[in-house]
Amino acid sequence: MGTDTSTDDDHLTDVPDGCGCTEIWEHLSEQRDEE
């Protein structure tokens, strides 16, 4: 195994802890609209 310390949740860094599915979906949707 490698020593890769990156995670697949880097796209959620701006989402506060404790958010539910709806808040996460809205955050991802807003990011997609900006691109």
How would you describe what is shown here?
By secondary structure, the chain is mostly helical. It is 40% helix and 0% strand. It has 1 helix and no strands. The protein has one helix at residues 21-34. The mean pLDDT is 77.
**Major β-sheet profile:** none
Taking all Cα atoms into account, the compactness measure Rg is 12 Å
Q: Helix/strand-derived class?
A: mainly alpha
Would you tell me the overall average pLDDT? 77
The helix content, as a percent range, equals: 40-55%
Termini separation (Å)?
34 Å
Number of β-strand runs: 0
Give a short summary of the structure:
The protein has 35 residues and is mostly helical. The protein is 40% helix and 0% strand. The relative contact order is 0.15.
How do the helices and strands line up, and which of them pair or pack?
Elements: H1 21-34
